Each structure stands twice: as C-alpha cells, then as structure tokens.
Amino acid sequence: KKELMDAVYGQDVVALCLHMHGCRVIQKAIRCLEQKDVSKLITEFHDKVLAFIHDPNGNHVIQRCIQVMSSFAKTAAHNDNPDLASSLSDEMQFIVDDIV
Q1: b/e per residue, 38-58, with b = 16+ CB within 10 A?
Q2: Comparing 100 with 38, which gets the higher pLDDT?
Q3: How far apart are the first and last CA of the chain?
Q4: Contact yes or no for 28/65 (Cβ under 8 A)
Q5: What are the counts of helices (DSSP H) followed by strands (DSSP E) for the chain?
Q6: Can you tell me the mean pLDDT for 2-10?
Q7: Are the beta carbons of 72 and 38 closer than 8 angstroms?
Q8: Tens digits of per-residue pLDDT, 12-57?
Q9: Residue 61 near residue 15 (C-beta atoms within 8 A)
C-alpha cells in the first residue's frame, strides 16, 4: 500500500484523475488504501470538484470518493465511534461545497 501511495504521489494526481487509465489507478487507490491514506489523497481534489464532475473520468473518481468515504463513516458509526464518523463526513463536505 505504501508503494501504491508513493506511485500515486509521484505523478500529477489531478492529471491522473482526468485520464482514461489514470482515473482507474486513482479509483483503485481509493478502494484499496486505508482510511487515513484515502483522506490524505482526497485533499488533492479540493477546489477541483467541478472540473472533475464535468469530465467522465474525473466524475468516476469523485463517485468513488463518496462511496468509500461514506463506507468508512458508516463503519465508524456502526463501531460506536461517532466522532470519527462525523470527522469522515466533514472530510467529504468539500465535494458538496465545491458544487454549491
């Protein structure tokens, strides 16, 4: 997983998200990495959500972010950790804020 993170950060993450094959790499990273690493990765997407959702490849990345981060938050809530669940929800708020 560390090698995956190193490989992703060795590239232009935004350009990867907008590339047909690169977006699959980013989606795989979001799906496979631990919560703290996904949280770090999605900070790269701040202020870029509109560009991503208007691009077919970037849109898939945003969808995967919502799916995986929501799953992390639900798991935290289910495990009686409401503070973590709330924090994870807050980490996704930029997606809504960028759209609205």
Answers
A1: bbebbeebeebbeebbebebb
A2: 38
A3: 34
A4: no
A5: 7, 0
A6: 69
A7: yes
A8: 889 999 999 999 999 999 999 999 999 999 998 999 999 999 999 9
A9: no
